[in-house]
Write a structure and sequence with these properties.
The protein is built from 7 helices and 10 strands. The chain has 207 residues and is an alpha+beta fold. The longest helix has 18 residues.
Amino acid sequence: MSTPFDVLSRITSARRGAPTGERCEMCADPIADEHRHVVNVPGRQLMCVCRGCYLLFTDAGAELRYRAVPDRYLALPDLAVDRRAWQELEIPVGLAFFFRNSALGRFAAFYPGPAGACESELDLDVFAELTAGDPRVAGMADDVEALLIRVPESDAPQCFLVPIDACYEFVGGLRLRWRGFDGGARAHEFVDGFFARVAGRSRTVSA
């Protein structure tokens, strides 16, 4: 299974322009530096693809092995996951992303650390209960969209619905900059900058 760091390496390599040229992982046609992604659902792998292959897997209602990653960014300022709820989830850091895994039929949660993304082994029934009545969460696409949540110690929680590849890029970028026990100054600056960029791309949708 590809890790978020593996995915980031492929994405950043493409943006720099690999000497042999980046190619679609499905049909092997050349693809541009800025390209789209699909998720191999059973393998939980993110794949770089051309536009033609991407369009084959955009039907959200079809039972497909591969699913296209959409480009939707939403700010959810009043999501029910506040600081108290976060403590109930027992996630050890103030950052995580959540997505519905269609193969497992439940939410999965990952949080960043010095080694990359760590999957939470805790029971996420609390998270499912907190968000069960929220139509914005109900409309989130399985496997390819995620809730990216930040709960700072001294500020209001930040909640965004984002494409899953944005989460992989975030975790991989944070790993590259992580130093010491708490990540260090470069990691903190990266987190601030990343969330600022996500906020700038997001349309606010209230409950």
